[in-house]
Design goal:
Layout: E1 5-6, E2 17-19, E3 37-42, H1 57-66, E4 71-73, E5 79-81, E6 84-90, E7 95-100, H2 114-125, E8 155-159, E9 162-166, H3 174-177, H4 191-195, E10 209-215, E11 219-224, E12 237-242, H5 246-254, E13 260-262, H6 268-272, E14 281-285, E15 288-294, H7 304-311, H8 316-324, E16 328-330, H9 353-362, E17 368-375, H10 378-392, E18 396-403, H11 405-413, E19 419-425, H12 436-439, H13 456-465, H14 471-488, E20 491-503, E21 507-509, E22 525-526
Parallel strand pairs: 3-12, 17-18, 17-19
Antiparallel strand pairs: 1-19, 2-3, 4-5, 6-7, 7-9, 8-9, 10-11, 11-12, 13-20, 14-20, 15-19, 15-20, 16-20, 21-22
Helix pairs in contact: 7-9, 13-14
């Protein structure tokens, strides 16, 4: 995601939640007769299946099954080709040459060519498209001058199967950025329908599955792409149901209709203590950070003393024990363990009410009350209720404001929400992804910097780090930047969590990944 973002407690999945065997019509009670049908559910409608405009986990979860990019991360977190069979990096990291696979077909049978890749990447840069992920390609030569002609100087097709991307200057994480959903390839011949957005109701891609049915707020049906250019899927179809209520999903699982259920803090122990389910629980490390964001441009959060004080008024260990029963790591910064730039030496915040009250007094705050916005799902409400209780112990009044996901994103991105509970799931395993989108001042709002944090020194350090080819040096720079951001407390740092799931007897195999959009569905295998 970016970045993707995403977000709002455990209800947003680092990996899609999977359920089994409902049909793809409005009658949810009917069941498919096919043993090779696999269903998954999302907690909210994937509003936008346009790779250029999608920003959250639910959208990318669907997009990853129907589209491909030039490159991708495999299940072992190694970079490999997807639509590109090979590539080389030239001119000290400024030029990338991609050789495309031949005989790749879109779902309608039309062939993929370099023209499709060039169109799709250039489209991301066009201002009228309005992509919140435009920053993904802002290092490309001419990206800032893209017009409605969809031509970008640094993105060109040499022939039908060769694409060259030229950067303004070296940018070490660039190849990782190309794995993001924003860089998925669309058919250029459909550009008129794409411009009108109707294309994305049932979009055409090159991915292992194709969309055959869709009813908004109800379901999507994906069928296997028999002509897929890579490893073919093992299931014939995937049904994606929209189930906002976690209790309903839980009931479906226990009644035998779900193949895989994500566990929340509220139900983990019950399943863990069940003789029937305890051996079927899988805990998956996830690249994420959970936080309460502060709008750094509005009072009282425009005062760093207030932001620091709030960080010192919560007991993270107590919250983790209450919310996750200890199955999470307190966040000392935005970079999670396992990502370059993470350091055990980072000095985060710990419970210190006396120092916090002193900071509030220095800021002239006698009484502090604010609204905390969160997504309208039970898991987010429960977590925010715990945070509310922690702050109330120290005289801080917090009013919880529940909002539907799309409305919440709008409120946060438009600066209407002073404080908001969210999370960030990594788009790729590089410290840049947990710093640049989140804290560079170019990325206010939907770009990732929802806290509207601005610090010129940090901006410059981030810009310097991304030009550094030396991996070890870049990692040291990320650690330094992470500490500097923490010292400014743009967020209330909470924790890094794992994802926990239960699988049913219907499923033979699912490969999990800490990167949420890596799951394109091909590893799912049902028992015969």
């Amino acid at each position: 995601m970016k970045k993707s973002i995403v977000i709002i407690g455990l209800a947003l999945l680092g990996i899609a939640l999977y359920i089994a065997l409902p049909t793809a019509d409005k009658n949810e009670g009917k069941v498919s007769n096919s043993k090779n049908t696999f269903a998954m559910y999302l907690s909210s409608e994937p509003t936008n299946l346009d790779p250029a405009r999608g920003v959250d986990v639910n959208e990318a979860t669907v997009q990853s099954k129907i589209f491909d990019g030039l490159v991708k991360y495999n299940s072992k977190m190694k970079l490999e080709g997807s639509l590109a069979e090979s590539w080389e990096i030239l001119e000290q990291g400024k030029k990338y040459v991609f050789n495309l696979k031949k005989n790749v077909l879109f779902h309608d049978g039309s062939p993929l060519t370099a023209k499709d890749a060039v169109y799709s990447l250039a489209r991301l840069c066009v201002p009228s498209v309005g992509s919140p992920r435009r920053w993904v390609l802002d290092k490309v030569l001419g990206a800032d001058k893209a017009g409605d002609s969809f031509e970008v100087t640094g993105i060109e097709a040499v022939d039908d199967y060769k694409v060259i991307i030229t950067l303004k200057e070296p940018f070490a994480p660039f190849i990782s950025l190309l794995t993001m959903p924003a860089c998925y390839v669309l058919p250029e011949k459909n550009k008129s329908e794409i411009a009108e957005s109707k294309f994305f109701e049932k979009p055409i891609g090159t991915g292992p599955f194709k969309v055959t049915q869709r009813v908004r707020d109800s379901f999507l049906k994906l069928e296997i792409n028999e002509a897929y250019h890579g490893q073919k899927a093992n299931v014939e179809e995937i049904i994606i149901r929209i189930i906002p209520e976690s209790m309903k999903a839980e009931m479906e699982f226990e009644s035998g209709n779900l193949d895989l259920l994500q566990l929340y803090p509220t139900n983990y122990d019950r399943f863990k203590n069940s003789e029937k389910f305890k051996n079927s629980i899988v805990d998956i490390p996830a690249l994420n950070t959970f936080y309460v964001g502060f709008n750094n441009r509005v009072a009282p959060f425009n005062d760093v003393r207030v932001r620091k004080a709030l960080n010192m008024l919560i007991d993270r260990d107590a919250l983790i024990k209450a919310v996750y029963n200890g199955r999470a790591i307190a966040a000392k910064g935005s970079i999670p363990p396992g990502v370059s730039g993470y350091s055990e030496n980072t000095k985060g915040y710990s419970l210190d009410p006396q120092k916090a009250k002193k900071l509030l007094a220095e800021a002239g705050i006698k009484e502090l009350e604010f609204d905390l916005y969160h997504r309208a799902v039970q898991s987010a409400f429960e977590i925010c209720r715990f945070i509310q209780g922690e702050l109330q112990k120290h005289g801080v009044k917090v009013n919880l404001k529940s909002m539907e996901w799309s409305a919440l994103k709008d409120a946060v991105n438009n600066g209407e929400a002073g404080a908001f509970y969210m999370s960030w799931y990594g788009d790729y395993p590089d410290g840049e992804n947990f710093l640049y989108p989140l804290f560079h001042s170019d990325n206010f709002g939907a770009g990732g910097n929802r806290a509207c944090f601005k610090n010129e020194e940090i901006d410059k350090l981030l810009e310097e780090a991304i030009k550094t080819d030396d991996i070890n040096k870049r990692e040291e720079m990320y650690a330094k930047i992470n500490q500097k951001v923490v010292d400014e407390a743009p967020w209330m740092y909470l924790w890094h969590s794992s994802e926990s799931y239960i699988t049913s007897d219907n499923v033979k195999n699912i490969d999990f990944s800490p990167i949420f959009f890596m799951d394109n569905g091909i590893s799912i295998t049902m028992k015969k």
